[in-house]
Amino acid sequence: MIVALSIRSFVLIDSLDLEAQTGFTALTGETGAGKSIILDALGLALGGPANRKQVRTGADRASISVEFELNQDHAVWALLRHHDIEVSNEDTLILRRIIQRSGPSRAFLNEQPVSTALLSEIGEALVEIHGQHAASGLMRPSSHRAMLDSFGGHIEYVKACASLWHAFEAARDHRQALEAAAKSAHERRDWLSFAVEDLSKLAPEAGECEALVAQRGVLLQSERITETIEEAHDALRDKALDESLSKAARATDRILHIQGLEALDANILVAAKQAAEAVERTLIELAEAQEAVRGLLQFGGHDSNSLESVEGRLFALRAAARKYDCTPELLAEVLERHCADLALCNSDTEALEYAKQAETAARAAWAEVAQKLTEVRHKTAARLETTIMRELKPLHLGRVQVQVGFIPISEDESGAKGLERVEFQVETNPGAGFGPLKAIASGGELARFSLALKCALSTAGGAGTLIFDEADQGVGGAVAAAIGERLGGLAKARQVFAITHSPQVASSAQRQWRVMKAPTQKGQLITHVAQLDDGQRLEEIARMLSGSSITDEARAAASKLLEAA
Hints:
The chain is α/β, with parallel strands linked by helices and 565 residues long. Among the domains are: 1-131 and 470-531, Rossmann fold; 201-343, no CATH class. The chain contains 18 helices and 15 strands. Strands 2-1-4-5-6-7 form a six-stranded antiparallel sheet, covered by helices on one side. Strands 8-12-13-3-14-15 form a six-stranded mixed sheet. The protein has a three-stranded antiparallel sheet with strand order 9-10-11. α6 (189-202) crosses α12, α7 packs antiparallel against α11 and α14 (443-456) packs across α15 (477-490). The longest helix has 43 residues, at 350-392. The protein is elongated and about 170 Å long. The model has no long low-confidence stretch (mean pLDDT 85).
């Protein structure tokens, strides 16, 4: 509901701040005082079209803000999340519109810039304005089906219909995809046959190429290892090396046996012994080295045939990958896919037949629920027509006949919402035939019809704030009292505002605002709004009864109206 409205520099309004409450509030005042200006300002804040001429003379810009207090589960919060607007559902919601005398208009939601289109979408979910020339969504045929379903409590049928339709669409898309694959396969039958035969001979395996690359690396290393071991073995097998060491050993041994060696020099014998021992050790270590290298020979068994085989396989896989435009790792998958495609073109596969059966079953399930939805809609339509007609008579619209029209839609159009469109239609004069609601040409009649329709659909949801602009135009007495009674009834569940010239309507309200126009010190006219207390309200209703000269009789009549409300 609206909790506050702030208007600055808009047409005849200089500065206006209003606080609103629940229930029914009547806006009254003399003709031309500015009641419609307030409504226009509110419409702008809700995303309506802007005009630079609406900026008050002498001001650079006009600003209108409207603050809403909403339940935490209100649909608007989900709408804002859908548009990535970061607003907490624990906050109030403030819609603001700025019109600049030079430059584009701007729209804000809780001080975040938004598009006018989004502001309008949000505003439509929050407020319904029923005027003499437009009656909000009630007059749009596109909204009538949802209204009928809400009135009849068809929500579960509608949900089931939507769910089954989407399931049918999924089944249909799956069948079409299989058929397209089969058609494509038929067109490629010869090529597929060749590809399957070719790849089957190659018999690629998943992960094979990677394993072959690793094996080839090992085989290449094996070749290098074998060559190195053989080189070391050949070097240690050199007979000249053995002979040289043996000759050196014999020579150092003879030195030790020379007579008189000790007499020549005491140290020469020690040195000779060390030399002989070193050569002897070398001969022993050479033998050990030769034995160790011979032991390595068992690890150097390189198989050149294996390397050639691995490299040949890799070459074949890579050549096939180039032929079939894929990586070698995907060859097995390509073969599997081509086999499946070839199977599709060779026969109607079980998968395709199953898909057709699933589609048929899904469509039958949807059609059954859609038909049931149509049946309950027709039953609800008769009940709604009776309800609307009952509301029209007290509003002096008894000659207007109402029917809920059903327009069948084609197979291509039918879907989540059922088998038909719905449109509320009227016959304004007997025998004239039924037509759309816009056939009600009179502005006052349109506003009253909108009120009747809203009362009939009072249980069918909708915006939490309703605004009626002169629904009492051209009527008085009992009809005006009936209008006031219905506005009061709507206000039990919603916030209702009504711009009215009727004392019967005004007296039915829980509170009353008076719109007045007065000159400033500079002689300019500006619009003011005052919330009336009980005494002021009595005087205002008396003025509405008697005109500018308020009589005691008018006050007494006003008192009776207020007491009866």
